[in-house]
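Reopening this one. Same input as before:
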Amino acid sequence: MKKTQAIEERGFVDALIGDGFFPLALTGVALAGAGGFALFLSATGHFLPHDVAYLGLDATQLSRVSNPRLVNFMFHDRAAFGGSLIAVGLLYLWLAEFPLRAGQAWAWWTLALSGTAGFGSFLSYLGYGYLDTWHGLATLALLPVFLVGMLRTRRQLQGDRNWRVLFRLPSWSKLSAKVKMGRGLLLVYGAGLVAAGLTISIVGMTTVFVETDLAYIGLTQPEICGVSDRLLPIIAHDRAGFGGGLLSIGLMVITIVLHAPVTRSFRQVMLLSGGAGFMAAIGVHVAVGYLNLWHLAPAAAGAVIFFTGWGLSCSDSPSQLSPEIQKAGA
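Same output, byte for byte:
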Protein backbone atom coordinates (compact mmCIF):
# COMPACT_ATOMS: atom_id res chain seq x y z
CA MET A 1 0.00 0.00 0.00
CA LYS A 2 2.79 2.44 0.91
CA LYS A 3 4.59 1.72 -2.36
CA THR A 4 1.39 2.31 -4.35
CA GLN A 5 0.75 5.56 -2.51
CA ALA A 6 4.32 6.75 -3.18
CA ILE A 7 3.90 6.09 -6.90
CA GLU A 8 0.60 7.97 -6.98
CA GLU A 9 2.18 10.96 -5.27
CA ARG A 10 4.63 11.51 -8.10
CA GLY A 11 3.95 14.45 -10.37
CA PHE A 12 3.07 13.75 -13.99
CA VAL A 13 5.99 15.77 -15.38
CA ASP A 14 8.41 14.25 -12.87
CA ALA A 15 7.25 10.77 -13.83
CA LEU A 16 7.89 11.50 -17.52
CA ILE A 17 11.31 13.00 -16.90
CA GLY A 18 12.29 10.30 -14.45
CA ASP A 19 16.03 9.70 -14.32
CA GLY A 20 16.59 11.66 -17.54
CA PHE A 21 17.01 8.80 -19.98
CA PHE A 22 13.58 9.26 -21.53
CA PRO A 23 14.23 12.92 -22.52
CA LEU A 24 17.56 11.95 -24.09
CA ALA A 25 15.94 9.06 -25.95
CA LEU A 26 13.19 11.44 -27.08
CA THR A 27 15.87 13.80 -28.40
CA GLY A 28 17.42 10.98 -30.41
CA VAL A 29 14.08 9.87 -31.82
CA ALA A 30 13.14 13.46 -32.71
CA LEU A 31 16.43 14.03 -34.54
CA ALA A 32 16.15 10.78 -36.46
CA GLY A 33 12.51 11.58 -37.28
CA ALA A 34 13.47 15.03 -38.55
CA GLY A 35 16.10 13.42 -40.74
CA GLY A 36 13.57 10.99 -42.16
CA PHE A 37 11.19 13.87 -42.86
CA ALA A 38 13.93 15.78 -44.71
CA LEU A 39 14.60 12.70 -46.85
CA PHE A 40 10.88 12.33 -47.56
CA LEU A 41 10.54 15.94 -48.69
CA SER A 42 13.61 15.63 -50.91
CA ALA A 43 12.37 12.39 -52.47
CA THR A 44 8.92 13.87 -53.18
CA GLY A 45 10.28 17.19 -54.46
CA HIS A 46 8.79 19.61 -51.93
CA PHE A 47 10.15 22.65 -50.12
CA LEU A 48 8.95 23.46 -46.63
CA PRO A 49 6.08 26.00 -46.46
CA HIS A 50 8.23 28.73 -44.91
CA ASP A 51 10.84 28.22 -47.64
CA VAL A 52 8.14 28.75 -50.27
CA ALA A 53 6.90 31.85 -48.43
CA TYR A 54 10.44 33.26 -48.20
CA LEU A 55 11.31 32.56 -51.85
CA GLY A 56 7.90 33.27 -53.31
CA LEU A 57 8.33 30.10 -55.36
CA ASP A 58 7.75 26.41 -54.80
CA ALA A 59 10.11 23.76 -56.18
CA THR A 60 8.23 23.35 -59.49
CA GLN A 61 8.07 27.09 -60.11
CA LEU A 62 11.74 27.56 -59.27
CA SER A 63 12.66 24.77 -61.67
CA ARG A 64 10.74 26.51 -64.46
CA VAL A 65 12.18 29.99 -63.99
CA SER A 66 15.77 28.89 -63.42
CA ASN A 67 17.31 25.49 -63.99
CA PRO A 68 15.98 22.08 -62.87
CA ARG A 69 19.46 21.22 -61.63
CA LEU A 70 19.39 24.13 -59.21
CA VAL A 71 16.37 22.58 -57.50
CA ASN A 72 17.99 19.14 -57.57
CA PHE A 73 21.08 20.63 -55.98
CA MET A 74 19.00 22.04 -53.13
CA PHE A 75 17.36 18.65 -52.57
CA HIS A 76 20.80 17.02 -52.68
CA ASP A 77 21.89 19.18 -49.73
CA ARG A 78 18.72 18.50 -47.79
CA ALA A 79 18.85 14.74 -48.32
CA ALA A 80 22.45 14.63 -47.11
CA PHE A 81 21.45 16.70 -44.07
CA GLY A 82 18.57 14.28 -43.41
CA GLY A 83 20.94 11.33 -43.41
CA SER A 84 23.23 13.07 -40.95
CA LEU A 85 20.31 13.74 -38.59
CA ILE A 86 19.34 10.07 -38.65
CA ALA A 87 22.93 9.12 -37.81
CA VAL A 88 23.05 11.63 -34.95
CA GLY A 89 19.74 10.40 -33.53
CA LEU A 90 20.86 6.76 -33.58
CA LEU A 91 24.12 7.55 -31.80
CA TYR A 92 22.24 9.60 -29.17
CA LEU A 93 19.94 6.65 -28.51
CA TRP A 94 22.86 4.25 -28.17
CA LEU A 95 24.86 6.50 -25.87
CA ALA A 96 21.88 7.07 -23.60
CA GLU A 97 20.76 3.44 -23.42
CA PHE A 98 24.12 1.69 -23.06
CA PRO A 99 27.23 3.47 -21.68
CA LEU A 100 25.35 6.35 -20.04
CA ARG A 101 22.81 4.07 -18.40
CA ALA A 102 25.79 2.13 -17.05
CA GLY A 103 26.96 5.36 -15.39
CA GLN A 104 29.97 5.98 -17.65
CA ALA A 105 30.88 9.66 -17.50
CA TRP A 106 32.64 9.71 -20.88
CA ALA A 107 29.28 9.02 -22.54
CA TRP A 108 27.68 12.00 -20.77
CA TRP A 109 30.47 14.30 -21.88
CA THR A 110 30.24 12.92 -25.41
CA LEU A 111 26.58 13.91 -25.53
CA ALA A 112 27.43 17.31 -24.08
CA LEU A 113 30.15 17.89 -26.68
CA SER A 114 28.05 16.69 -29.59
CA GLY A 115 24.96 18.54 -28.40
CA THR A 116 26.90 21.78 -28.13
CA ALA A 117 28.13 21.38 -31.71
CA GLY A 118 24.76 20.29 -33.07
CA PHE A 119 22.47 22.76 -31.36
CA GLY A 120 25.07 25.50 -31.65
CA SER A 121 25.20 25.08 -35.43
CA PHE A 122 21.78 26.77 -35.58
CA LEU A 123 23.53 30.05 -34.77
CA SER A 124 25.41 29.80 -38.08
CA TYR A 125 22.39 31.55 -39.60
CA LEU A 126 24.05 34.77 -38.41
CA GLY A 127 26.60 34.21 -41.17
CA TYR A 128 24.09 33.89 -44.03
CA GLY A 129 21.07 35.83 -42.81
CA TYR A 130 18.24 33.32 -43.28
CA LEU A 131 16.38 32.57 -40.07
CA ASP A 132 14.66 29.24 -40.69
CA THR A 133 11.63 29.57 -38.43
CA TRP A 134 10.81 25.86 -38.38
CA HIS A 135 14.42 25.02 -37.56
CA GLY A 136 14.40 27.69 -34.86
CA LEU A 137 11.17 26.47 -33.28
CA ALA A 138 12.34 22.86 -33.38
CA THR A 139 15.60 23.87 -31.69
CA LEU A 140 13.76 25.84 -29.01
CA ALA A 141 11.42 22.91 -28.37
CA LEU A 142 14.07 20.18 -28.34
CA LEU A 143 16.90 21.97 -26.52
CA PRO A 144 15.11 22.08 -23.12
CA VAL A 145 14.29 18.37 -23.45
CA PHE A 146 17.92 17.60 -24.12
CA LEU A 147 19.14 19.81 -21.26
CA VAL A 148 16.71 18.27 -18.76
CA GLY A 149 17.87 14.81 -19.78
CA MET A 150 21.50 15.83 -19.36
CA LEU A 151 20.90 17.34 -15.92
CA ARG A 152 18.98 14.30 -14.67
CA THR A 153 21.36 11.68 -16.04
CA ARG A 154 24.39 13.43 -14.57
CA ARG A 155 23.20 12.23 -11.16
CA GLN A 156 23.57 8.64 -12.33
CA LEU A 157 27.26 8.91 -13.26
CA GLN A 158 29.70 6.69 -11.43
CA GLY A 159 33.19 7.69 -10.37
CA ASP A 160 34.85 10.87 -11.59
CA ARG A 161 32.42 13.19 -13.40
CA ASN A 162 35.07 15.64 -14.61
CA TRP A 163 35.37 16.30 -18.34
CA ARG A 164 38.92 14.98 -18.21
CA VAL A 165 37.50 11.45 -18.24
CA LEU A 166 37.38 11.88 -22.02
CA PHE A 167 41.18 11.69 -22.00
CA ARG A 168 41.44 8.68 -19.69
CA LEU A 169 41.42 5.99 -22.29
CA PRO A 170 41.08 2.24 -21.74
CA SER A 171 44.03 0.15 -22.82
CA TRP A 172 44.00 -1.46 -26.26
CA SER A 173 46.88 -3.77 -25.35
CA LYS A 174 44.71 -6.90 -25.29
CA LEU A 175 43.08 -6.20 -28.64
CA SER A 176 44.19 -8.10 -31.71
CA ALA A 177 46.16 -6.32 -34.43
CA LYS A 178 43.15 -6.38 -36.76
CA VAL A 179 40.88 -4.81 -34.17
CA LYS A 180 43.44 -2.10 -33.41
CA MET A 181 43.73 -1.34 -37.12
CA GLY A 182 39.94 -1.25 -37.44
CA ARG A 183 39.59 1.16 -34.55
CA GLY A 184 42.34 3.29 -35.99
CA LEU A 185 40.47 3.53 -39.29
CA LEU A 186 37.25 4.45 -37.48
CA LEU A 187 39.14 7.23 -35.72
CA VAL A 188 40.36 8.47 -39.11
CA TYR A 189 36.75 8.35 -40.29
CA GLY A 190 35.59 10.36 -37.27
CA ALA A 191 38.36 12.94 -37.72
CA GLY A 192 37.42 13.20 -41.40
CA LEU A 193 33.82 13.94 -40.45
CA VAL A 194 34.94 16.68 -38.07
CA ALA A 195 37.13 18.25 -40.77
CA ALA A 196 34.38 17.93 -43.40
CA GLY A 197 31.77 19.38 -41.04
CA LEU A 198 33.88 22.42 -40.25
CA THR A 199 34.76 22.95 -43.92
CA ILE A 200 31.18 22.65 -45.17
CA SER A 201 29.89 24.96 -42.43
CA ILE A 202 32.49 27.60 -43.27
CA VAL A 203 31.82 27.30 -47.00
CA GLY A 204 28.08 27.54 -46.32
CA MET A 205 28.49 30.76 -44.37
CA THR A 206 30.91 32.35 -46.86
CA THR A 207 31.26 31.33 -50.52
CA VAL A 208 28.28 28.90 -50.39
CA PHE A 209 29.32 26.95 -53.51
CA VAL A 210 32.45 25.15 -54.63
CA GLU A 211 33.48 25.00 -58.27
CA THR A 212 31.98 21.57 -58.95
CA ASP A 213 28.61 22.72 -57.56
CA LEU A 214 28.31 25.53 -60.08
CA ALA A 215 29.49 23.22 -62.88
CA TYR A 216 26.69 20.78 -62.02
CA ILE A 217 24.01 23.47 -61.71
CA GLY A 218 25.06 25.13 -64.95
CA LEU A 219 24.69 28.65 -63.57
CA THR A 220 27.12 31.16 -62.15
CA GLN A 221 26.57 32.56 -58.68
CA PRO A 222 25.45 35.96 -60.06
CA GLU A 223 22.97 34.16 -62.31
CA ILE A 224 21.58 32.26 -59.32
CA CYS A 225 21.22 35.55 -57.46
CA GLY A 226 19.48 36.94 -60.54
CA VAL A 227 16.75 34.32 -60.20
CA SER A 228 16.15 35.42 -56.61
CA ASP A 229 18.41 37.20 -54.14
CA ARG A 230 16.91 34.94 -51.47
CA LEU A 231 18.26 31.71 -52.93
CA LEU A 232 21.78 32.02 -51.55
CA PRO A 233 20.70 32.43 -47.90
CA ILE A 234 18.48 29.31 -48.12
CA ILE A 235 21.19 27.22 -49.80
CA ALA A 236 23.77 28.49 -47.31
CA HIS A 237 21.46 27.48 -44.45
CA ASP A 238 21.20 23.93 -45.80
CA ARG A 239 24.95 23.64 -46.25
CA ALA A 240 25.80 24.97 -42.80
CA GLY A 241 23.22 22.64 -41.22
CA PHE A 242 24.74 19.62 -42.95
CA GLY A 243 28.19 20.70 -41.80
CA GLY A 244 26.97 20.94 -38.21
CA GLY A 245 25.51 17.44 -38.46
CA LEU A 246 28.80 15.99 -39.71
CA LEU A 247 30.71 17.74 -36.94
CA SER A 248 28.35 16.31 -34.32
CA ILE A 249 28.68 12.76 -35.72
CA GLY A 250 32.45 12.98 -35.98
CA LEU A 251 32.88 14.04 -32.37
CA MET A 252 30.70 11.16 -31.17
CA VAL A 253 32.44 8.58 -33.35
CA ILE A 254 35.88 9.58 -32.04
CA THR A 255 34.94 9.34 -28.36
CA ILE A 256 32.88 6.16 -28.81
CA VAL A 257 35.71 4.37 -30.62
CA LEU A 258 38.24 5.48 -28.00
CA HIS A 259 36.16 4.43 -25.00
CA ALA A 260 33.54 1.81 -25.87
CA PRO A 261 34.15 -1.93 -26.10
CA VAL A 262 33.17 -3.57 -29.37
CA THR A 263 29.95 -5.24 -28.30
CA ARG A 264 26.89 -6.30 -30.26
CA SER A 265 25.17 -2.96 -29.74
CA PHE A 266 28.35 -1.11 -30.79
CA ARG A 267 28.50 -3.12 -34.01
CA GLN A 268 24.87 -2.47 -34.77
CA VAL A 269 24.71 1.27 -34.06
CA MET A 270 27.93 2.02 -35.92
CA LEU A 271 26.71 0.14 -38.97
CA LEU A 272 23.23 1.68 -38.87
CA SER A 273 24.42 5.25 -38.33
CA GLY A 274 27.25 5.05 -40.84
CA GLY A 275 25.08 3.24 -43.37
CA ALA A 276 22.29 5.82 -43.07
CA GLY A 277 24.72 8.69 -43.55
CA PHE A 278 26.49 7.25 -46.57
CA MET A 279 23.33 5.97 -48.23
CA ALA A 280 21.83 9.46 -48.07
CA ALA A 281 24.98 11.41 -48.91
CA ILE A 282 26.16 9.22 -51.80
CA GLY A 283 22.79 7.91 -52.94
CA VAL A 284 21.34 11.37 -53.50
CA HIS A 285 24.20 12.22 -55.86
CA VAL A 286 23.25 9.25 -57.99
CA ALA A 287 19.58 10.20 -57.83
CA VAL A 288 20.14 13.78 -59.05
CA GLY A 289 22.97 12.95 -61.46
CA TYR A 290 25.66 14.89 -59.59
CA LEU A 291 28.41 12.41 -60.40
CA ASN A 292 31.56 14.51 -60.51
CA LEU A 293 34.32 12.15 -59.41
CA TRP A 294 36.36 14.86 -57.70
CA HIS A 295 33.33 15.96 -55.71
CA LEU A 296 32.40 12.39 -54.71
CA ALA A 297 35.94 11.29 -53.89
CA PRO A 298 35.91 12.36 -50.20
CA ALA A 299 32.59 10.62 -49.52
CA ALA A 300 33.69 7.47 -51.36
CA ALA A 301 37.00 7.40 -49.49
CA GLY A 302 35.15 7.94 -46.23
CA ALA A 303 32.85 5.02 -46.99
CA VAL A 304 35.79 2.71 -47.74
CA ILE A 305 37.58 3.76 -44.55
CA PHE A 306 34.42 3.39 -42.45
CA PHE A 307 33.29 -0.03 -43.67
CA THR A 308 36.84 -1.43 -43.62
CA GLY A 309 37.35 -0.09 -40.11
CA TRP A 310 33.99 -1.38 -38.97
CA GLY A 311 34.70 -4.85 -40.35
CA LEU A 312 38.16 -5.08 -38.81
CA SER A 313 37.11 -3.69 -35.43
CA CYS A 314 34.33 -6.28 -35.27
CA SER A 315 36.56 -9.19 -36.29
CA ASP A 316 36.86 -10.56 -32.72
CA SER A 317 33.90 -12.75 -31.82
CA PRO A 318 31.78 -11.90 -28.73
CA SER A 319 33.15 -15.00 -27.02
CA GLN A 320 36.59 -13.39 -26.96
CA LEU A 321 35.30 -10.50 -24.85
CA SER A 322 35.35 -10.65 -21.08
CA PRO A 323 32.00 -11.31 -19.36
CA GLU A 324 32.10 -7.79 -17.87
CA ILE A 325 32.46 -6.18 -21.30
CA GLN A 326 29.75 -8.35 -22.81
CA LYS A 327 27.36 -7.39 -20.00
CA ALA A 328 28.16 -3.67 -20.34
CA GLY A 329 27.49 -3.41 -24.05
CA ALA A 330 25.44 -6.38 -25.24
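So the earlier flakiness isn't reproducible anymore. For the record, The chain is about 75% helix and 0% strand.
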